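for the recovery benchmark. tokens below, seq after
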């Protein structure tokens, strides 16, 4: 007993020293950098939350955030302060950096360590599965996704089309697409929209998106699968579940420019190319004539912006006596028109050189030429017609007597006539100076009201047409046509189904839901004509309201529908 008491007394000072050291070191221990996530496994279409704690007086290394961005998209980032109490009663404040992340790739991704001074958090490994592998009990025919290519072996710089199609007969929410980015290709969206179709005696909403792809480099490319992910209500489980569908795009072999194509020519892999102009080589011209020269190039299979200048090298080949004057080319989707003028400065037979534009026929897979043949232009000299002089002027040695009084009279009459003429034109000039602005103001005044009235009438006509077109389908008992027209009108003013339901009153909502359920749900009660006419009338008011205030079309991610 005595020994234990002596041992306790001898160790007590040591314990107090350890306890005091712990109290002193506690704030420093809490100042370390920590990182944690809300999950360690996820699918590629999901997001995770990352919290990084650091002392309120410190900051994490910016390079660590840049490393994080190589593996994840930072969708949201915010910062707040957290206060806690240590064992010795001291209050410490830490800074929390919160990130909402979306993975860029599948597999095992490592969130890097975050450093602040001499402290660093631990790296975190996240396993990311492809959303296409997510298990779900949704029937396969409920949502069907496909992707088709117009060409699987295109040439370099040859545009081809990727068509994505999603057919579905269920209500989807938070629908999003993955895999629609193609770093190796130039991508341009040509079209997208939704229609209604019947497949296997079932009605589907069909979403189509058409992209034009063009490769700059030859080689073999494997395009990623396009994955659709969305939420739907599972009537069996009574819960909202997420599902995924994937469409395989496949491999694309991009071919290089053929070796027999002219080296210095612009590469044109197209379906057809024509070159023509308006010159008439059978017509004769004179020195000093100016004639308009129009050259027209028409292309199929590529935008006209890729067409070369057909007259780029012709000026140096023109013969002496011909000059070329040029205006900027006029280019639309499939045509290039070069507007020029030719002037002739010398007589004779002048030969305009041949114009040849090479192009590659992708249908026949061979080199072809668009040609304007060389032509001879006949240019005649200008005839010099001098006036005859006999009897019109006095002989050189003939004495000419001029009466001085007559001369004086003529001079006086000339001065008087000149003065009167001057006064007359001066009066005309003053009158025009006053009348012209007055006339312009008058026409502006009388033109303002009719224009405003016409604009108001046009707006009213558009609003009325929106209702009448729907009413026409309703009176014809064309339910599908009515729905398609309604969707078209909604897309024109960028009105979503959610916004439509929120804006309608109870009668309008009932009419729309009856229409929607009849087409896409198991409820087969056909909407009557009165309910469709009522919906058309109420939609007219919304059409007028939303037409003037369209939402922005630039979205941060691919979203099929705002359901």
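predicted aa per position
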């Amino acid at each position: 007993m005595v020994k234990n008491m002596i041992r306790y007394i001898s160790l007590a000072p040591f314990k107090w020293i350890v306890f005091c050291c712990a109290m002193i070191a506690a704030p420093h221990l809490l100042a370390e950098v920590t990182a944690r996530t809300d999950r360690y496994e996820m699918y590629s279409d999901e997001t995770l939350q990352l919290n990084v704690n650091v002392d309120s007086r410190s900051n994490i290394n910016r390079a660590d955030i840049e490393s994080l961005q190589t593996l994840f998209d930072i969708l949201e980032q915010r910062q707040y302060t957290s206060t806690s109490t240590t064992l010795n009663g001291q209050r410490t404040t830490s800074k929390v950096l919160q990130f909402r992340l979306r993975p860029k790739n599948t597999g095992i991704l490592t969130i890097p360590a975050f450093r602040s001074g001499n402290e660093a958090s631990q790296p975190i490994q996240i396993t990311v599965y492809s959303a296409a592998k997510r298990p779900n009990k949704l029937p396969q025919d409920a949502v069907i996704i496909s992707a088709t290519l117009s060409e699987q072996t295109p040439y370099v710089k040859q545009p081809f089309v990727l068509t994505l199609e999603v057919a579905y007969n269920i209500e989807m929410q938070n629908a999003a697409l993955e895999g629609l980015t193609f770093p190796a290709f130039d991508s341009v969206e040509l079209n997208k929209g939704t229609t209604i179709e019947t497949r296997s005696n079932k009605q589907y909403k069909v979403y189509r998106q058409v992209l034009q792809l063009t490769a700059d480099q030859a080689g073999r490319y494997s395009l990623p699968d396009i994955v659709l992910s969305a939420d739907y209500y599972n009537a069996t489980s009574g819960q909202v579940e997420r599902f995924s569908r994937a469409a395989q795009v496949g491999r694309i072999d991009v071919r290089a420019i053929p070796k027999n194509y002219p080296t210095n020519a612009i590469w044109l892999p197209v379906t057809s190319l024509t070159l023509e102009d308006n010159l008439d080589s059978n017509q004769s011209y004179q020195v000093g004539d100016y004639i308009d020269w129009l050259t027209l190039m028409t292309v199929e299979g590529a935008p006209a912006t890729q067409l070369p200048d057909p007259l780029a090298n012709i000026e140096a080949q023109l013969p002496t006596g011909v000059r070329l004057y040029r205006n900027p080319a006029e280019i639309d989707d499939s045509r290039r028109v070069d507007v020029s003028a030719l002037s002739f400065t010398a007589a004779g037979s002048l030969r305009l050189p041949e114009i040849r534009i090479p192009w590659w026929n992708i249908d026949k897979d061979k080199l072809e030429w668009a040609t304007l043949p060389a032509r001879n232009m006949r240019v005649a000299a200008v005839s010099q017609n001098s006036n005859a002089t006999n009897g019109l002027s006095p002989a050189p040695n003939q004495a000419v007597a001029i009466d001085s009084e007559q001369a004086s009279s003529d001079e006086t009459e000339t001065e008087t006539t000149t003065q009167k003429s001057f006064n007359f034109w001066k009066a005309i000039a003053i009158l025009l100076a006053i009348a012209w602005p007055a006339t312009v103001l008058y026409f502006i005044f009388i033109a303002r009201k009719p224009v405003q009235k016409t604009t108001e009438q046009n707006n009213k006509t558009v609003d009325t047409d929106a209702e009448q077109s729907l009413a026409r389908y309703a009176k014809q008992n064309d339910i599908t046509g009515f729905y398609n027209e309604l969707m078209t009108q909604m897309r024109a003013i960028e009105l979503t189904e959610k916004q439509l339901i929120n804006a309608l009153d109870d009668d309008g909502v009932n009419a729309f839901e009856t229409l929607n359920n009849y087409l896409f749900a198991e409820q087969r009660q056909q909407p009557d004509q009165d309910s469709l006419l009522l919906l058309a009338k109420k939609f007219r008011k919304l059409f007028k309201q939303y037409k003037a205030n369209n939402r922005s079309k630039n979205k941060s991610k691919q979203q099929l529908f705002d359901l």
